[in-house]
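Translate sequence into structure tokens.
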Amino acid sequence: MPWQAIASIAVSTALTTWLIVHVATRMDPLLLRAIFSVFMVLLAIRLWRTAQRHPPSAPQVERRLNLRVLPFVGMVGGCSMALLGIGGGLMAGPLLSGWLGQRQTTAQGLSLALVAPSSVVALATYAGAHRVDWALGVPMTLGGLLTVSAGVALAHRLPERPMRLSFAAILMATALWLVAGPQPIH
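Result follows.
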């Protein structure tokens, strides 16, 4: 992965995240939850359809990465991260793998160049607006830190199509839980 690709995504997503978080912190939380649910359903459908079109035995041929469009990927991911508090990597993955023709593992790696800076910027801005529950956030962070290496190792061993289908199923289940699950009290 060229450093120019990483820098392009990182800078564009950090700036976009900072701008959009200021809008999101002023929005109704139930509206944000509804937007996020719709986002997850649409993304799951897109991933499912893409995975269904690829024959299981045909590996994806990775195209040359177009560095000029990476700031757009960063801006889309930054908007998602800022508005929803998550999703920058979820948006970047399909854009990088579907639109730009990168293998799923390459797309996931480049997504981290988007997630890292946008997470820091979003967390700092949400915390400044007193919208972070640290008692919940710290244990979730520790759990993620303890399991991320195992997840990355597993992703590199899984075949492309089952990995995409599993990801789509997880997104759909999460969206349904957000709609049907307990509603926040505010």
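Note: The chain has one domain: 3-132+159-180.
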